[in-house]
Every structure is written in structure tokens, then in C-alpha cells.
Design goal:
Layout: H1 6-10, E1 32-34, H2 36-42, E2 46-52, H3 62-76, E3 80-84, H4 88-100, E4 103-109, H5 115-123, E5 127-131, H6 135-148, E6 152-153, H7 159-165, H8 167-176, E7 182-186, H9 191-207, E8 213-219, H10 224-227, H11 249-258, E9 262-266, H12 268-282, H13 288-302, E10 311-317, H14 342-349
Parallel strand pairs: 2-10, 3-4, 3-6, 4-5, 7-8, 7-10, 8-9
Antiparallel strand pairs: 1-2
Bound molecules: ligand AN7.
Length: 351
């Protein structure tokens, strides 16, 4: 049977109102790629899989939640959706709104959104507004305006976003036959970690497939959940998770605690090193934020805090490297320029 998207496949397991009218780009069904080379590099005593969420229709995991949120909004008769975004939510909201025939408005922190995300939001026809402030400022603004006007908020405060994002956990269990022992993933506004944990718990109740321990990873310059207080001026090269006051912070901490996992922070250097390593060792190019989960895993292994002989680990790689094309070349040698002559080429590649 052909694949018809997440609401078709898992809709009966999602708590969505009866008025929901499915809007789908055939999102989800992303590959769980074995990462043997990286596992060996990290010390080897486990099976490592990358859930490559960059292969969703707009290039990030946000499409899982957005199909649910926009489908509900459309069915309810909404005409306009709005979100604050570090980029991926904006592109996803804009695409699903376009498909549903709704207007979309996205607020982004000025100058802090990767090129591929901004271009996407514009291409899909969103009204893009840059805020001279942070993501957290933008989120406060969209919450206020959606309380005042009939505009549907599609940030992950919207419960249907979480419902849709639970499907990532369902897919992993369906592919592996049971839950992995560990799940590692980046944490920004903390919707995804909340959704994965809810999804694993629900699937375990239904199918007794077990639950993973959850390792949530923040960037050190934007690590409110590790520090225990909001960060007024978050800074990180991983702009997707440059968030100082996560909307679902409490639930993220609960997920970590209930699962007997933890939330940790890693440096920008660790994030960028992992981004390169994953691309070079496995041929999987993800955006910086998406490498944070694996960077956290590497960090814990290096610190001797991770003992997992024979265990299965799944890393959620949340967005595609193409979204943020410039960053991978930072600090790298520029490609050489040679004359269009065979000898010139030989001189270089045989050197
Ligand atoms: C690639 O797009 O918050 O912890 O506005 O784009 O659920 O917020 C993006 C977040 C991880 C963190 N990886 O997920 C937005 C936004 C990527 C992301 C996260 C984001 P949450």
C-alpha cells in the first residue's frame, strides 16, 4: 500500500479533534540509518542508528507536528497561522499553510536564521517578519497576538504539534521491533523531547515495546535546562536551538528524570566537530543543532559516563545540512582553483 503521510498512518493514535482535516506532504517515514563507522569511532560497544529527520518534506522534523497542527487549524476554520521560529518551524508552517490555503506569518530573530530556512519560508509564501530581539521575545509576541486575534498559534505550545511529533517514537519502535535503550536528541524549545517521551510511553502501554533512557542535549551558550534558570542572551552557532526560555522546559526535565536519562550541554566546538564527523564517516550531513544529540553522546562517552555494551542507541538528527550551507565550511580550506588542464589536475590529486 502506498504511503499517505503521518495522519493516515498513525492518526488513530493521536489525540486530534474530530474536525481535523488532513493536510499532508507525505512527511515522516524517515530512515533509521545504522551508523557503524561512527559507533566504532566512538568506542564501539553499541549499535548506533541515526533517525534522519532532515529527509522530511521541508528538511526538518517539524513537519511531523505541523501536519497535525495545520490539519486541526484548517478543520476548525482558521484562516491564518502564526509562529515564532529559529527557522525550521517557520519553513514548515509556511509549507503546510500554503498547502492548506491558509495565510502564514512567521517571526524570526533578526540575522540569526540559517539561509535555507529563511529562503524556504519566503518561497512558501509566508509573511516573514524579523524581530530585533531573540526567539524568546518573538515567542512572547506570537502568544500575545494569538490570544488577541483569531490567528492560530503553531509553535509547540500548540498540543497538536506534540501529538504529531510522537510519531517519531512510533516509527523507531516499528523499525527496530522495540524501543532503543537510549535516545539522544537536541533540545531547544523542548517540544521534541516532550513528544518523543510521550510517544514512547504511549507505544509501550499499547505494545509493551519498552522505553529508552533519554539524553537531551543543549548548546552550552543556550542551556537553561542545565543551568536551572532562563538564559537572557542565548548564543550558539547552532542557531536552531538558540533558545533561552524553553516553552516546554518542565516537561523536558520530566522526560529526562522519568526515563532515567539526563539533559546536558555541549560546546559549539563539540557540535561542529560532530557535524563534520557524521558527514565524513557516514555521509549524513545535518545542520549544527542536529548534531548536538550525537555530540552529547560523544561527550558522555569521553567522560566515562556512558556504559552501553551491546546496547541500541538512536540519535535524532533533526534537520538537513542543506539548511545551513555556509557553516560546514567555517575554518576550512577553500577548494583549490586549477587550470583546465589534465596535468594541473594530476599535480594536485596525485600529490
Ligand atoms: C534542527 O524552528 O525551535 O526542542 O523555531 O530546528 O523541539 O525546540 C527549532 C528547533 C532541534 C529543537 N533541531 O527542538 C524553530 C525551533 C533543529 C531545530 C530543535 C530545533 P525543540
Amino acid at each position: 500500500m502506498s504511503y499517505l503521510g503521518l495522519l493516515d498512518k498513525y492518526g488513530s493514535l493521536l489525540d486530534l479533534p474530530a474536525h481535523t482535516r488532513p493536510v499532508s506532504l507525505l512527511e515522516g517515514n524517515t530512515p533509521l540509518i545504522p551508523a557503524e563507522n561512527l559507533a566504532r569511532h566512538l568506542g564501539g560497544d553499541f549499535e548506533l542508528y541515526v533517525k534522519f529527520e532532515g529527509l522530511n518534506p521541508t528538511g526538518s522534523f517539524k513537519d511531523r507536528g505541523m501536519t497535525a497542527a495545520v490539519s486541526e487549524a484548517l478543520g476548525r476554520g482558521a484562516k491564518t497561522v502564526i509562529c515564532a521560529s529559529t527557522g525550521n518551524t517557520a519553513a514548515s508552517a509556511a509549507a503546510y499553510a500554503a498547502r492548506a490555503g491558509l495565510k502564514s506569518i512567521v517571526l524570526i530573530p533578526q540575522g540569526k536564521v540559517a539561509a535555507g530556512k529563511l529562503a524556504g519560508a519566503i518561497a512558501y509564501g509566508a509573511q516573514v517578519i524579523q524581530i530585533d530581539g531573540s526567539f524568546d521575545d518573538a515567542l512572547t509576541m506570537v502568544v500575545d497576538i494569538s490570544n488577541k486575534y483569531p490567528i492560530c498559534l503553531v509553535n509547540s505550545i500548540n498540543p497538536y504539534r506534540i501529538e504529531g511529533q510522537k510519531t517519531g517514537a512510533f516509527e523507531i519502535c516499528d523499525t527496530l521491533g522495540s524501543a532503543p535503550d537510549w535516545l539522544c536528541l537536541p533540545v531547544g524549545n523542548a517540544g521534541n523531547i516532550t513528544a518523543y517521551w510521550a510517544g514512547f510511553k504511549q507505544y509501550d502501554d499499547l505494545k509493551s515495546c519498552g522505553k529508552p533512557q533519554v539524553l537531551g542535549v543543549q548548546a552550552a551558550g543556550a542551556a537553561p535546562l542545565v543551568l536551572g534558570h532562563p538564559v537572557e542572551k542565548p548564543e550558539t552557532v547552532a542557531t536552531a536551538i538558540r533558545i533561552g526560555k524553553p516553552a516546554r522546559g518542565e516537561q523536558a526535565l520530566e522526560a529526562a528524570e522519568e526515563s532515567k536519562g539526563r539533559i546536558i550541554a555541549v560546546s559549539d566546538d563539540e557540535i561542529l566537530a560532530m557535524q563534520r564527523l557524521l558527514a565524513k564517516l557516514e555521509g549524513i550531513w545535518v545542520e549544527p543543532a542536529s548534531a548536538a544529540g550525537l555530540a552529547g553522546l560523544a561527550h558522555e562517552i569521553a567522560a566515562g559516563k556512558f556504559h552501553a555494551p551491546g546496547r541500541r542507541i538512536v540519535a535524532i538528527c533533526t534537520g538537513h545540512g542543506l539548511k545551513d550551507p555556509d557553516i560546514i565550511t567555517y575554518g576550512m580550506e577553500k577548494p583549490r582553483i586549477v587550470a583546465p588542464k589534465l596535468e594541473a589536475l594530476e599535480e594536485i590529486i596525485l600529490a
